[in-house]
Specification:
alpha+beta; twelve-stranded mixed β-sheet; 13 helices; 12 strands; 54% helix; ABC3_permease_C
């Protein structure tokens, strides 16, 4: 019996025990679904982060009074510097505008409530005061309406942009353009609608109301605001050198003593995305371990089923050996059966894992993740299926190949 005939015989045996094959393949399928599904979901979440920061550009960075992404440990205080006030932010913009584009932004409040007629938003809307470069440097786009004019920036006119989440709460399907809403007791005329931006983990880039910077300062009268600064340049080859120049200017503006640490944080605009990449690697490792443990349980179940199959087919093995089948051919036949069953289950698991993993990613990222076809994890899944088939089938196949043909023929 050659290899081709042995493969055909193995497939006929699988077809002859179709129900058992299907149930066994389902066990493997669930293991592959968990493995590939988790890894697909993680890749989808990473794509959401990449989408959120895709419009920021490689040569931009932020200056704040706090780190962009800080992991707090128990008993450790969050690192935060003295506020960057309006005078300091404006002075930096004047001094560094010749080097690149500079944008100023302030969080007037993170729990604003917008009202229109009888409707109002949840108290978690971000009210931002922005300057003329903010929309461009932070990757926002105006879907409807127009940008703020120089007069509106200079004279603190009560106009605003709305994010899509705010529009959904206040206007549902009607257009908000040229209508007036009330925020913090002040009427604001809506002149622009922001395109949906999304944010990783539902961070709230669409749950926002933007006003001119001077208008934001007017609305926060009596409160100390801190200003975030974004700097960008398309002409710089080395962003690190560019950032060091900006650091020197900001230290001068903040009057930091020589030899003392910076009294501000300076971070690449994509630093959160870079930080999340390392987190993603850890998540992938954890997901792989969890999926592999699930798959290991499926492999043990498959081995048990293959052992039962060998016992049931003892007489068949005896007949094959009496007709001249060598132990290697018997071993090969049972290994082929185990591998084919695993591959059938693996293909089914991959088909299930792709939509499940993408649905999880979409749910976590509020619909901002790209649809992922995980070619790498699909190949890994197929390879693992073959390895699981070998692992599960080797002992039952070895046991079958070592059977005495005379004793096998006597088996009832």
């Amino acid at each position: 019996m050659n290899i081709k005939e042995n493969i055909a015989e193995g497939l006929r045996s699988i077809k002859g025990n179709l129900l058992r094959t299907i149930l066994t393949a389902l066990i493997i399928s669930l293991g592959i679904t968990s493995l590939v599904g988790i890894l697909t979901a993680i890749d989808g979440i990473q794509s959401s982060v990449d989408n959120s920061f895709s419009g920021l550009g490689a040569n931009s960075f932020d200056i704040r009074n706090r780190p962009a992404m800080q992991v707090r440990r128990e008993g450790q205080r969050e690192k935060r510097f003295k506020n960057i006030d309006y005078r300091q932010a404006s002075r930096y913009k004047i001094m560094f505008s010749a080097k690149g584009k500079v944008s100023l932004k302030t969080n007037v409040t993170n729990n604003a409530i917008g009202k229109y007629e009888s409707k109002k938003t949840n108290p978690n809307v971000r009210l931002l005061g922005i300057d003329d470069n903010f929309i461009e440097l932070k990757g926002y786009k105006i879907a409807e309406g127009r940008n703020f004019s120089n007069n509106e920036f200079t004279n603190a006119i009560n106009v605003c942009f709305l994010g899509v989440d705010v529009i959904d709460q206040l206007f549902e399907k009607s257009s908000p353009l040229n209508r007036e809403i009330i925020v913090s007791g002040i009427k604001l005329k809506v002149i622009g609608v922001l395109a949906k931006k999304g944010n990783m983990m539902g961070g709230g880039d669409d749950r926002v109301i933007m006003v001119p910077l001077e208008t934001g300062r007017k609305m926060a009268i009596g409160r100390n605001l801190t200003f975030d600064i974004t700097t960008s340049s398309t002409k710089v080859a080395n962003i690190d050198d560019f950032m060091e120049e900006a650091r020197g200017v900001m230290r001068k503006v903040r009057m930091d003593p020589i030899g003392m640490e910076d009294s501000f944080s300076i971070d690449r605009s994509d630093s959160i995305a870079k930080s999340f990449e390392s987190i993603t690697s850890s998540l992938q490792l954890g997901g792989f371990v969890i999926g592999f443990i699930t798959l290991l349980g499926a492999a043990i179940a498959l081995m048990n089923i293959m052992m039962v199959s060998v016992t049931e087919r003892t007489r068949e093995i005896g007949i094959r050996k009496s007709l001249g089948a060598t132990p290697s051919r018997i071993l090969q036949q049972f290994l082929i059966e185990a591998i084919v069953i695993c591959l059938l289950g693996g293909i089914g698991g991959i088909v299930l894992a792709i939509p499940i993993g993408n649905l999880i990613a979409q749910g976590i990222s509020s619909g901002n993740a790209s649809f992922i076809i995980p070619w790498l994890w699909m190949m890994v899944g197929i390879i693992i299926c073959v390895l699981v088939g070998l692992f599960s089938g080797i002992y039952p196949a070895f046991k079958a190949s070592k059977m005495d043909p005379v004793e096998a023929l006597r088996y009832e």
